[in-house]
Design brief:
Shape of chain B: globular
Number of strands of chain B: 30
Distance between the termini of chain B: 51 Å
Number of helices of chain B: 18
CATH superfamily of the largest domain in chain B: Aldehyde oxidase/xanthine dehydrogenase, molybdopterin binding domain
Low-confidence stretches of chain A: none
Shape of chain A: globular
Strand order of the largest sheet of chain B: 13-14-11-21-18-19-20
Order of helices and strands of chain A: EEHEEEHHHH
Distance between the termini of chain A: 44 Å
CATH topology of the largest domain in chain B: Aldehyde Oxidoreductase, domain 4
CATH superfamily of the largest domain in chain A: Beta-grasp domain
Low-confidence stretches of chain B: 1-45
Bound molecules: FE2/S2 (inorganic) cluster
Radius of gyration of chain B: 27 Å
Oligomer: heterodimer
Strand content of chain B: 15-25%
Chain lengths: 155, 716
């Protein structure tokens, strides 16, 4: 039995410690918002936060989580009220939407570390997240918009 | 969509039982027995069906059954908008669910319940507006009879019928009575001037579920008692299992069974991770003899040999061969294109729940009817015993027009006796795609003594997708229409035109890939157009302009793209190339702007002018253009699937590259206002990227690239 903290609650799971966090989240716990695209840390669809840092859950053994707090797309907000989610809705970013949980988790981590990212910062932070539907232009605009929304909320 | 597949079971059953009646070209699945389902209760209250797409509950809930698959292109929003416009209800008030298999849902442009070919809005444009209008009139008639007046004195407003005295009924209050009324045959549709929602940008209805992780894709389906499967498929094309030893796999944790299916060996376990680990422990001896000699070289040689024959004529104006023979000057070229994978971000996946008396299939598919047929065959059931539940699709791009990933899930569920979700790995997906066909084409243009272009001949060679996917659909000696797009509609004013096509199978399965043969043929036709301009000593844009003088819609987009792109402006180090095309009833021109950096083309900007007729939701149209352009850009820059000894060489995103955030050029989309009926928008923009880009590269380097991807060419 392993206990990990997911979206604020402790969850005990009976899995092989080598199991990637992605499959514990999806299959064992039933949080399917985090997606699988490549299994090799190449696409970012499985991005979640460990203590606020973006990681690829597909290559993170559950045993490596330890006491770190895991945040998934489901834990970002209860009501799509995170500034990144609001900006995503406002600019209608998703197409098929499959990559978007990962995009949003990467973007929220970026903004937490760097509240006013430049385009170059966005390139650096987001180039690990593939969007096969090519929503990048709107993702970029939405990250800038989320930065504005977050700044407003602060003030 | 609903997270719980069972939640819409009520309305689905209702529709399945309903008789289908054809009325004036429209098929409405009207339940003639009307009252019989009044006993059917759900949490939403009584559900009343007025037609195949619409159900209105006594609690005033309104549901739209979306009969096209949502794969990012926006049907979930666009189609409900069409119906809502005539129903006079804000589309945001309408709940959307995905439709089951049904005759009413046939796509008239494709002849099946299919989402593809950029047809959804074109097919639905009249159909769903009429359905909305008929329902509206039936609701009005029901209110009128209640008020003992005539329907013409009533009007509708925001989901209510209002009498001339200001009395009101909600649609929910009228629905049961309305469903018993005859469907009106004579319907007047709104004038475009009066549209409240069509033509206006509004946020997508599926966005909220796609920003909080709640949208259910194929991979997310969870059923009580469900098991997970991974499938060991032959590592070579057309391979077979010779023998296998599953002792080690069966001993692995969580494994519930190993099933030899028609497409590979499925390992079924209590989690997908367990299934995958155990699959890797299988010892399989494969028979790869069928494709051992298949490789890139043999495929190209085969195409070139086949190209020696005359093709089947797809377009013939005048006598191009004679005109070429008599021309003062002839330009000839050969072009070649590689195979490509679709690489939907969600790998192929299917969940099957097979029972003795029927089965339920939960699947991201673009083709519900074919999915049903494939599942029925695999389960040994009648198609009518198979329910197809369509999930959101994590990308389609034509990949999910094939149903090759369905039978193994069905066979595994049947053998194990439990629901099974069978998910491919990325490597499975890349190596077992139905690839975009390779092509080898020759093209010639002839000028007369006065320098006028008098002949154009395009000789295409490649495999037929349609002949494989729809056996019998392409008659012997007939043309596969999906092989000659962006060729048979050659728009330039040239008296002698010949397009012919040699069907040649290449020894592997080819599939519909976003924009299909437009992406192949537009590259050839529009690159060669620049070659002809060069021969004529003219600027490529000016050369096109003259020859498009009788084509206002082509000319319209060409001028808009040129104007916005700064084409012709002298900016040191910046180079531009142009391409134009009509596809799916949509006219487009693109200008690519590049510079050369370290012997490579760096793409700075792509300007795309679009005349797609009336745009139902302009923001979705623009998104589709951006999406399609980046799809074309990935292919142009890096896309190729190579085969050696029958084995596909690429496997994951490290060797099958797609565009990432830091590689995206500025994309500018300009919509040309139009009153024409809508054209398709999901695909066409993909096809113009390669020729526009290669024409820009020519402007920069004086080198004509006649094959792709660009990684094959060193521009230094
Ligand atoms: S699934 Fe983890 S990075 Fe692709
Ligand atoms: S929205 Fe489809 S992969 Fe990004």
């Amino acid at each position: 039995m392993l206990t990990i903290n997911i979206n604020g609650s402790d969850r005990s799971v009976d899995v092989d410690p080598a199991t990637p966090l992605l499959w514990v989240l999806r299959d064992t716990i039933g949080l399917t918002g985090t997606k699988f695209g490549c299994g090799m840390a190449l696409c970012g669809a499985c991005t979640v936060h460990l203590d606020g840092q973006p990681v690829r859950a597909c290559v993170t053994p559950v045993s490596a989580v330890g006491t770190a707090k895991v945040t998934t797309i489901e834990g970002l907000s209860a009501d799509r009220s995170h500034p990144v989610q609001k900006a995503w809705i406002e600019l209608d970013v998703p197409q098929c939407g499959y990559c978007q949980s990962g995009q949003i988790m990467s973007a929220t981590a970026l903004l937490a570390a760097n509240p006013q990212p430049t385009d170059t910062d966005i390139d650096a932070a987001m180039s690990g997240n593939i969007c096969r539907c090519g929503t990048y232009q709107r993702i970029r605009a939405a990250i800038h918009r989320a930065a504005e929304l977050a700044a407003k909320e602060q003030s | 969509m609903n997270a719980q597949p069972g939640r819409n079971a009520l309305s689905r059953r209702t529709f399945l039982k309903s008789g289908a009646i054809g009325i004036g070209g429209l098929v409405l699945a009207i339940d003639i027995t009307g009252c019989s389902k009044r006993g059917a209760k759900s949490a939403a209250g009584e559900i009343t069906t007025t037609n195949a797409w619409l159900s209105i509950g006594t609690d005033n809930s309104i549901h739209f059954l979306c009969d096209r698959s949502e794969m990012g292109q926006g049907v979930y929003t666009g189609l409900v908008t069409l119906l809502a416009e005539e129903l006079e209800v804000d589309p945001r008030r309408i709940g959307v669910e995905f439709a089951p298999v049904g005759a009413a849902y046939t796509n008239a442009l494709l002849g099946g319940q299919v989402t593809g070919g950029s047809t959804s809005v074109r097919d639905a444009w009249d159909k769903l507006r009429i359905a909305g209008a008929q329902a509206r009139e039936m609701l009005k008639a029901a209110a009128a009879s209640e008020w003992k007046t005539t329907a013409s004195t009533c009007r509708v407003e925001n989901g209510e019928v209002v009498s001339s005295f200001g009395k009101r009924f909600t649609y929910g209050e009228l629905a049961a009575a309305a469903a018993r009324l005859p469907v009106p045959a004579d319907i007047k549709l709104k004038d475009a001037r009066d549209f409240r929602w069509i033509g206006k940008s509004s946020t997508r209805l599926d966005t909220p579920a796609k920003v909080d992780g709640s949208a259910i894709y194929g991979i997310d389906v969870r059923l009580p008692g469900m098991l997970y499967a991974s499938l060991a498929m032959p590592p070579m094309l057309g391979g077979k299992v010779r023998s296998f030893d599953d002792a080690a796999a069966r001993a692995m944790p969580g494994v519930q069974g190993v099933v030899a299916t028609s497409t590979g060996i499925a390992v079924v376990a209590d989690s997908w991770w367990h299934a995958l680990q155990a699959r890797n422990a299988l010892k399989v001896e494969w028979d790869g003899s069928a494709s051992a000699a298949l490789n890139d070289g043999s495929i190209l040689r085969g195409l070139k040999q086949a190209a020696a024959a005359n093709g089947i004529v797809a377009r013939k104006d005048g006598d191009a061969d004679a005109a070429l023979a008599g021309a003062a000057r002839v330009v000839r070229a050969e072009y070649q294109l590689p195979m490509l994978a679709h690489a939907t971000l969600e790998p192929q996946v299917c969940t099957a729940d097979v029972r003795a008396d029927g089965c339920d299939i939960y699947v991201p598919t673009q083709t519900q009817g074919a999915a049903q047929a494939a599942a029925a065959r695999a389960a040994g059931l009648q198609p009518g015993q198979v329910n197809i539940h369509t999930t959101f699709l994590g990308g389609g791009f034509g990949r999910r027009l094939d149903v090759d990933f369905i039978p193994a899930a069905v066979e595994a569920s049947k053998a194990i006796g439990k629901p099974v979700k069978l998910l491919w790995t990325r490597e499975d997906d890349t190596t077992h795609d139905v690839y975009r066909p390779p092509a080898y084409d020759t093209v010639a243009g002839g000028f007369d003594r006065d320098g006028k272009l008098v002949a154009w001949k395009l000789h295409l060679t490649g495999p037929s997708i349609t002949a494989r996917v729809f056996p019998g659909a392409v008659p012997p000696g007939g043309v596969d229409p999906f092989s000659v797009e962006a060729a048979s509609n050659y728009p330039y004013d040239v008296p002698n035109v010949l397009v012919d096509w040699v069907p040649h199978e290449v020894g592997l399965d080819v599939g519909y890939w976003r924009s299909v043969s437009h992406a192949l043929n537009c590259f050839v036709a529009e690159s060669f157009m620049d070659e002809l301009a060069l021969a004529a000593g003219q600027d490529p844009a000016a050369f096109r302009r003259t020859l498009l003088a009788k084509q206002p819609r082509y000319l319209g987009v060409l001028e808009v793209a040129l104007r916005h792109s700064g084409y012709g402006k002298n900016e040191p180090g910046r180079f531009r190339g142009v391409a134009v095309m009509e596809g799916y009833g949509t006219y487009m021109a693109q200008v690519a702007e590049i510079s050369l950096v370290d012997g490579k083309a760096k793409v700075h900007r792509i300007v795309c002018a679009v005349d797609c007729g009336q745009a139902v939701n302009p923001t979705i149209v623009v998104a589709q253009v951006e999406s399609a352009i980046l799809f074309g850009l990935s292919a142009t820059l890096w896309g190729e699937i190579n085969v050696q000894g029958g084995r596909v060489q690429q496997s994951n995103f490290h060797d099958y590259r797609v565009v990432r955030m830091n590689e995206v050029p500025v994309i500018e989309t300009h919509l040309v206002a139009s009153d024409e009926s809508p054209g398709g928008i999901g695909e066409p923009a993909t096809a113009l990227v390669a020729p526009a880009l290669c024409n820009a590269i020519y402007a920069a380097t004086r080198r004509r690239l006649r094959s792709l991807p660009l990684t094959r060419h060193n521009l230094a």
